[in-house]
Amino acid sequence: xxxxxxxxxxxxxxxxxxxxxxxxxxxxxxxxxxxxxxxxxxxxxxxxxxxxxxxxxxxxxxxxxxxxxxxxxxxxxxxxxxxxxxxxxxxxxxxxxxxxxxxxxxxxxxxxxxxxxxxxxxxxxxxxxxxxxxxxxxxxxxxxxxxxxxxxxxxxxxxxxxxxxxxxxxxxxxxxxxxxxxxxxxxxxxxxxxxxxxxxxxxxxxxxxxxxxxxxxxxxxxxxxxxxxxxxxxxxxxxxxxxxxxxxxxxxxxxxxxxxxxxxxxxxxxxxxxxxxxxxxxxxxxxxxxxxxxxxxxxxxxxxxxxxxxxxxxxxxxxxxxxxxxxxxxxxxxxxxxxxxxxxxxxxxxxxxxxxxxxxxxxxxxxxxxxxxxxxxxxxxxxxxxxxxxxxxxxxxxxxxxxxxxxxxxxxxxxxxxxxxxxxxxxxxxxxxxxxxxxxxxxxxxxxxxxxxxxxxxxxxxxxxxxxxxxxxxxxxxxxxxxxxxxxxxxxxxxxxxxxxxxxxxxxxxxxxxxxxxxxxxxxxxxxxxxxxxxxxxxxxxxxxxxxxxxxxxxxxxxxxxxxxxxxxxxxxxxxxxxxxxxxxxxxxxxxxxxxxxxxxxxxxxxxxxxxxxxxxxxxxxxxxxxxxxxxxxxxxxxxxxxxxxxxxxxxxxxxxxxxxxxxxxxxxxxxxxxxxxxxxxxxxxxxxxxxxxxxxxxxxxxxxxxxxxxxxxxxxxxxxxxxxxxxxxxxxxxxxxxxxxxxxxxxxxxxxxxxxxxxxxxxxxxxxxxxxxxxxxxxxxxxxxxx
Length: 788
Known about the structure:
Layout: E1 2-4, E2 7-10, E3 22-28, H1 34-41, E4 49-55, E5 61-67, E6 71-76, H2 97-105, E7 112-114, H3 117-128, E8 135-137, H4 150-156, H5 165-172, H6 175-179, H7 182-194, H8 202-207, H9 218-236, E9 241-243, E10 246-253, E11 256-261, E12 275-281, E13 288-298, E14 301-306, E15 315-322, H10 329-342, H11 352-357, H12 362-366, H13 388-399, E16 402-406, H14 413-424, E17 434-438, H15 441-453, E18 460-463, H16 465-472, H17 477-480, E19 485-487, H18 495-502, E20 507-511, H19 512-515, H20 518-522, H21 525-528, E21 533-536, H22 548-554, E22 560-565, H23 575-578, H24 588-591, E23 595-596, E24 599-600, H25 605-615, E25 621-622, E26 632-636, E27 643-645, E28 648-650, H26 652-667, E29 672-676, H27 679-691, E30 700-702, H28 706-710, E31 714-720, H29 733-740, E32 743-751, H30 753-758, H31 764-772, E33 777-779, H32 780-784
Parallel strand pairs: 3-6, 4-7, 7-8, 16-22, 16-23, 17-20, 17-21, 18-19, 18-20, 21-22, 24-25, 26-32, 26-33, 29-30, 29-31, 31-32
Antiparallel strand pairs: 1-2, 2-3, 4-5, 5-6, 9-15, 10-11, 11-14, 12-13, 12-15, 13-14, 27-28
Helix pairs in contact: 3-9, 9-10, 13-14, 14-15, 26-27
Family: Belongs to the DNA2/NAM7 helicase family.
Keywords: ATP-binding, Helicase, Hydrolase, Nucleotide-binding
Protein name: Nucleoside triphosphate hydrolase protein
């Protein structure tokens, strides 16, 4: 790379063919001139301009590279409100740099070519109020290949035989891409320009649907660009290094390790981009390492090819997955829908139900979707009682096309769902179906169990083999007895086979992600059970953009959609880091007509009343037999110290106290679970339960995996706060609310009294301790003596 003034010569390293170095001109956006751009465009061909970008914090576009076959402009972007230091030097009668850049981006003579063009178009709009026309997303040209596969990129660039594969991977997906230096960004833009000369793509270029953000309604454009940005920032949060929990036993055959995995969350999966790093010990070769890839993963078994011989007498010290998880099928589907909106293949305004949620006008809000959804006036007749707020919620769902139900902990959200299903199911025709969806597999399972308990058995639950097989089969024992479970590997491509699986059931339960699964669609599920009514549980945990595939694919059939959740409990994943994620509960036009479930039946009355006052403005009533203030006890762990551990926190002294309590409850035959805010503490507690030789599986949970996951409540809850110096997690009101609202009989909180009184008095737990007073505290000595 040779440099002269603001110009640099870059030699490409991607193609095996010889190319002359191309010239890069580095310039601030404000310094762009008409003459500079005119000179640059003289080097362009009718094939198009290559585009690439780099992004700073929060995904903001900071540099834009625009390339011809021989020249590249590397433009440092300025925010719209930023005043350039060189402003006085610019002739005020001349067009501004931004105006000139807009002219390039909207120049009708040149197509703009980029990998992931949807991302660049969204960033230009969100960050710089710039539009782009004639913009081609290169992966869309080869729609018959997997968008994220390395082979797809190689094909677009001309074929693996014409490329240095390792260099391409590094430039577009690896460390060079992450570093996003000027050389890398410009090389990607130049390579994108070269795709115009790939003869395999010629007819696909001609037929391609271009992005034109000038032509999209501004309200729609704002919405879809935010969805794209949110998805990218969520992907950026995925860890790049994960420790995989494996069994100590292993075998080594044919250059591969046969391993047993012990934790679903850290299981190994096959991946294009991830590698494994294995550390092992052997008496003759201590601290040896090997790298490899997952060749096979099924249930709790994984086969990993490695680049070293691992003797059978070795001990595996650790295994790490290096690299981010690839997007899930649901994440890919969301990306494609976002791209299709920008390409104007679909529209957020295409279906009335979508408009009412994403981009409502006053006319949309004022009128029901009467042409496709006559209001249901069916009486809510079910074989179990409903309180007044539950009855109001059920009627709201049955008589409205879009409804929002606000359900605090223990208020019977699944009871309302069951009531609606039992009232509506008898009225269904062959062209109607009810789909009950949620964020997590276990939340769906909980709904299924509720339906079974109230005597409604005519439903099918779809669950992924990945989640079910060998990991969570025990969760489905009850409902599998009735033949209600369909596992994904049982689904074929034949609608006749699907009909045999459904057995005329018109009620389907699955995760929201499963609805957009290609296999479900092609197997004919939606044809046999049309998606006319959708009820979404855990809606407050679902980021708004996750509904794009559902509403864009099935908006033409959906007549009724109800969202049930609580924005005072867990937020969408990533909200704590990003702070910009919306669920349906942030949509004011839905929130103002929501129904509030006002009576909780789970928590002892004193705990429920406390939660009501501090979280729900005193509107939440309690109906519970336990009224004693001793239903909540606080244990003063005086010598516990918080410790940093692998990006998380633990407190060993407090963990020992928790285990002592668990032993007492176990000895008395009590049903209990342990909740803590931190994964490191969860891992420590699980190890200590094993050492104590008392049941440990499905006993310890991070609070984020408790609400709507393995279980959402239990008779007795032990809470390990962990913190002793800094408030940390306790500042998060929503997560603390979840932690304090899980018990059905009693709750024991292990923490430091001095910490709560001196450093955390304004937190929810601090306020609880102050209100409960001296009588609620017990000492570790009391616990050891059995005085719980």
